[in-house]
Amino acid sequence: MLGLGVGEVIIILVVALVVLGPTKLPQVARQVGKGLREFRRHASDLQHTFDEVAREAEREERERERKAAIGMAPPEHLPVAANEPLEQPSSPAAVASAESPETAAHVTPDVAPSEPKP
Q1: pLDDT tens-digit profile of 11-69?
Q2: Whole-number pLDDT of residue 22
Q3: DSSP SS3 for 109
Q4: CB contact at 8 A, 91 and 82
Q5: Distances (CA, A) of 59 to 45, 64, 84, 107
Q6: Contact assessment for residue 61 and residue 52, using Cβ atoms and an 8 Å cutoff
Q7: Tens digit of each residue's pLDDT (9 = 90 or more) over 64-86
Q8: Which of 48, 50, 20, 44 is closest to 32 using CA atoms?
Q9: What is the average pLDDT across 99-116?
Q10: How far from 71 is each of 8, 64, 76, CA to CA, in Å?
Q11: How far is CA 78 from CA 5, 81, 83, in A?
Q12: Quick one: angle between helices 6-20 and 25-70, nearest 10?
């Protein structure tokens, strides 16, 4: 309890008895007890709220990971550009180069390649 020993507590009680008097000391002690009880109750409520928020965040994270694992939703840690759909290539040569080198040889490009100048 705050690192106070028995001797320090006795000194505090004697000083409180001298300052407050024997008639007011029980009333003040009751009020201090009620205040401490209310403080503990509020601290406990706050701790429960933090725990609940942490559990909810963990549950949501597990749900996102589960959905990402089965392909329902993109993972949150990917950049936005990776989550966007790919653009369709506009020319047959671009399609062929995107597919594989074997199929690219069978498709003619839209523009004839220029020959090097001597």
Answers
A1: 988 999 899 888 898 999 899 999 999 999 999 999 999 999 999 999 999 998 888 88
A2: 87
A3: coil
A4: no
A5: 21, 9, 26, 51
A6: no
A7: 888 888 876 555 555 555 555 55
A8: 20
A9: 53
A10: 65, 10, 13
A11: 56, 8, 7
A12: 130
Residue holding tokens 């690192």?
A: 3
CB 68 within 8 A of CB 82: no
Count the neighbouring beta carbons within 10 Å of the beta carbon of residue 96: 19
Cβ neighbourhood burial of 12 (10 Å; 0-12, 13-18, 19+): exposed
Cα–Cα distances in angstroms (integers) from residue 42 to residues 37, 47, 53, in the given order:
9, 9, 17
Collapsed DSSP state (helix, strand, coil) of residue 22: coil
